[in-house]
Amino acid sequence: MATVLVVEDEPAVRLGVRLALEKAGHRVLEAATSKEAWPRLREAEAVVLDWMLPDEPGTRLLERMRQGAYPDLPVLMLTARAEVRDRVEGLSRGADDYLVKPFAVEELLARLEALLRRSGKRKVLRRGPLLLDLERKEASLDGKPLPFTRREFELLAFLAQRPGRVYSREELLEAVWGHDYLGTPRTVDQHVLQLREKLGEDPKAPRFLETVRGMGYRFKEVPAGPNQGEG
Asked: Which of 45-59, 69-83, 111-125, 135-149 has the highest mean pLDDT?
């Protein structure tokens, strides 16, 4: 759910990267040249930048970014140049990370997520196909936005940050609604029901939210993957 500028002159590569980023929930801007890219930088929260562009090398665009108004904008450089000296040159000119073509989409997404976390531009929690942007309070499942209310998001985020631990309804009321909230435990049940509906959960085999009889609720532990974690 970041805005990512993809600067790539090869249409097939640009399309593949765009589709992968959109599936992961990102907004994508595109540019085929350095000239097209420059005015779109102001909207970008991260850049996927090809080394070889038709009007000037991507490294030259990168230098102008670092010397100008974008000294800290995260940049993942793509290139077919795999020599150590090439990687060193790309990094020394200001790239934050470097990926050699051909690349696996999963690796590109993982590296981009890591850049966004390190840059402090996003605080994102990923649990399998579920992505929670803790700053924007936005969620997506399999890349599709989920229409949570503020309380629904806060309840889900609270549990998802503590997978495996069981919380009673009273504990969840205090943690999410506050100690002075006058509602009843039924409030928690109602919100969990709404969350499950929006997540498309099967009550008999929930993927995320489990009821622990006589105790409360917990977020299921999801096996760690390359894109999983939080920043």
From this structure: 45-59
Other C-beta atoms lying within 10 Å of the C-beta of residue 71 = 9
Q: Which among 89, 104, 109, 10 is positioned nearest to 50, based on CA atoms? A: 10
Q: What is the DSSP letter of 102?
A: S
Q: Which two tokens stand for residue 215?
A: 């105790």
Global pTM value: 0.56
Closest CA to 48 of 84, 83, 86, 22: 22
Q: Return d(Cα 187, Cα 25) in angstroms, integer.
A: 30
User: What does the pLDDT read at residue 226?
Assistant: 42
Q: Give the residue ranges of DSSP H helices in the chain.
A: 11-23, 34-37, 58-67, 84-92, 105-119, 150-160, 169-172, 185-199
141: tokens are 């499942």
Q: Which residues on neighbouring strands pair with residue 38, listed in sequence order?
A: none
Angle between helices 58-67 and 84-92 (to 10 degrees): 30
Find where tokens 């993942």 sit. Answer: 76
Note the pLDDT tens digit of each residue in 119-159. 776 677 888 889 888 877 889 998 889 999 999 999 999 89
Dihedral-angle region of residue 128 (phi above 0 means left; psi in -120 to 50 means alpha; beta otherwise): left
What is the average pLDDT value for the chain, to the nearest integer?
86
Residue 204, both tokens: 């008999």
Give the integer Cα–Cα distance in Å for 27 and 78. 19
The predicted pLDDT at position 121 comes to 64
